[in-house]
Every structure is written in structure tokens, then in C-alpha cells.
Amino acid sequence: MKKIIHLDSIEKRFADTVVVPSFSLSIEEGEFLTLLGPSGCGKTTLLRMIAGFEQPTTGEIFLDEKPLKAVPPYQRDMNMVFQQYALFPHMTVEQNILFGLKMKKVNAAEQQKRLEEVLQYVQLTELRKRMPKQLSGGQQQRVAIARAIINNPRVLLLDEPLGALDYQLRKSLQLELKNLQKNLGITFIYVTHDQEEAMAMSDRIAVMNKGRIEQIASPAEIYNSPQTLFVATFIGENNIFRENGTNAAVRPEKIKLYPVDSDKDKHKKLGTIADAVFLGNLRKVFIRLEGQDMTVMAHQYAGDGLDWQVGDQVAIGWAQTDEVILPC
């Protein structure tokens, strides 16, 4: 697949503070790439450098192999969507969406053609005459997205666009955004701290920590084969067993619980159930290990056949293939 954006030895410093240490990254055309990490890890700074709102201290950013250092944001073939929508309150939905095309003096017939297309894409045709204050948060974000895609940018940059929405609405818009990206074929670079959101939407995820990219891979590879302790503990839930100078990461769904008098070959450790949390078809069971200052989490699903209770003594085990050995 063709490379559309390349970051070559990019570094960002504010005074003497290194915010993004030097690294390189290539992004493919038509890809949905998510920059994922905790607050303050540098992901928004990186997005703003790609957009042109910040300049890298060293290194260069390329779009279609052309350097962007001297190209201002409005001349880069990309648009940005923000968490807070940034709509004009005195304009209707369609006026907000058409604003960029009018500034570029695109002819009226082409404006109308593109408007009808994007209104259908974002399901706002019936709301085109409404003002922003008459819209829900999700509808306002659809307007912001429509405004960003109406001029067919090569790249769409999205900075926590669903962060201000409630949980159920976020889930719904995640699917809509992913389908929109696939239908349009536009490269999406998406910033979020929400790992579930990143896993659900992305072709690849770049996990960031303290300005560095710790791992970049598909969601499945990030989850099943983390390369660092940070990735293993930041993405999903994990049990970290520290023994013999190594860290062994085992996901809760891979931990099996057995009666203490069962086949000893299955046992790895013994413990007592300290707590159990009911979550519908799933119970999170917490086991306090014998002789160790450690609590292990295991997932017990409806139909597993064993209803463990707080205070029960159990043995735990897992397949060797289900553990990931990580550097200390």
C-alpha cells in the first residue's frame, strides 16, 4: 500500500523540555491509524505537528513525499476535527458545512452536489436548516465531520472527537466513523486515550507513553502480543507475574480456576478468592495468592459451571502459550 505521510526523525521540544523524543513513522494511504495514550503523552502535539499548527523542533514531515515544513496549515491537503466541534453558532447546519468551499470560491453547483453527498454520509439531510444550538452533541459532531470531509482532503485528523459524548452515543458514532472512513477511503489519524475506542476502530494503533511510541501494530497484535510492560498494562486488563528476572503477562480471560484437589499438573499457584464483581455474563474474580503480595484477576463467564464464592480456596493455571514474556 502507498505511503501517504512520513515523519522523519521528528522531535518536539518546548524550551528545555522534550515533549516528543525523536522518532520516525510512516502512515499508509486509506489507513485508520490511532494515536493512543494517557493524557500528556504527546499524542495531540504530534497531531498538531502533522496539521501544521506546531512545528517540529527537528526532523521533517512529508505528504506524498513532499516536505511540509514551509506549507501553512490551510494549504496542506488535510482537515482537522476537534472535540469541541468549533461550529459557527450563527450559521445553519448546511452553512457550517459549506463554509470552507465558499472560502475557496468553489462554484455553486459543485457546492450543492458535495453538500448533498456529505449530508447523506453523516445522516443530517433532515436537519440541514437547524442551528447548532438545536442539535445534540452527536449531531453537532456530525456537522463538524461533514465540514471537514466536504472538500475531499487526503487526510483527516481527529483529536478526541467523541470525548465529550456519553458512553452509548460514543459507541454508536465509533461504528459510524469507521464505516465513513472505509466508504470515503480517506486516511484517518485519530487521537484518543480510550483504548476500547482505539481497538474498535483502528487498522493500526500507535501506543504512546511519555512522547514515545512504545508499539505500533494491529489491535489484535497490540492486545495479544504487547512488546513492553506499559503496553501490556495500558491495553486491557493483565496479570503481571514477576519471577526470575522476567515479567509474564497473562490476560484474565486466560486464567483458569480449579478446585485445590484437582489435577496438580494444571496448577501454577494457589490462592483464596478475595472478591467477585458481577458484570452480566461476566464475573471478575480476584484471587489473593498464597505466600505472595499479589492479587490475580480471572474472568468467569456464564456457563463455566463453577460458581466460585468469596473465601473459596482455589488453584489457578494457564497455558504456557497464553503468557507473554516481557523485559523488566
Describe the fold and architecture.
The protein is α+β, with helices and mostly antiparallel strands. The chain has two domains: 3-230, P-loop containing nucleotide triphosphate hydrolases (Rossmann fold, 3-Layer(aba) Sandwich); 238-326, OB fold (Dihydrolipoamide Acetyltransferase, E2P) (Beta Barrel). 26% of the residues lie in helices and 34% in strands. It is built from eight helices and 18 strands. It has helices at 43-51, 93-103, 108-121, 137-149, 167-184, 195-201, 219-224, 229-234; strands at 3-14, 17-28, 32-36, 58-63, 66-67, 78-81, 155-159, 187-192, 204-209, 212-217, 239-243, 246-250, 256-259, 269-278, 282-289, 295-301, 313-317, 323-326. A hairpin with a 2-residue loop joins strand 4 (58-63) and strand 5. Helix 2 (93-103) runs parallel beside helix 4 (137-149). The chain starts with a strand and ends with a strand. The model has no long low-confidence stretch (mean pLDDT 92).
Question: What are the defining features of this structure?
Answer:
five-stranded antiparallel sheet, six-stranded mixed sheet, alpha+beta, 328 residues, 8 helices, transport, Mo/tungstate-bd_C_term_dom, 2 domains, OB fold (Dihydrolipoamide Acetyltransferase, E2P), Rossmann fold
H/E element string? Answer: EEEHEEEHHHEHEHEEHHEEEEEEEE
> What is the assembly state of the chains in this entry?
single chain
> What is the CATH topology classification name of the largest domain?
Rossmann fold
Q: How are strands sequenced across the largest beta sheet?
A: 6-7-8-3-9-10
- Look at the structure and give the mean pLDDT: 92
Number of strands: 18
GO molecular function, one term: ATP binding
Subunit structure: The complex is composed of two ATP-binding proteins (PotA), two transmembrane proteins (PotB and PotC) and a solute-binding protein (PotD).
Family: Belongs to the ABC transporter superfamily. Spermidine/putrescine importer (TC 3.A.1.11.1) family.
Organism: Brevibacillus formosus
